[in-house]
Amino acid sequence: MQNLGRRINAAVNDLTRAATLDEKAFDAMIKEICNALVESDVNIKLVAGLRNSIKKSVNFNELAPGVNKKRIIQKVNNLLDFTSSSPLY
Question: Is position 89 within any domain?
Answer without folding.
Answer: no
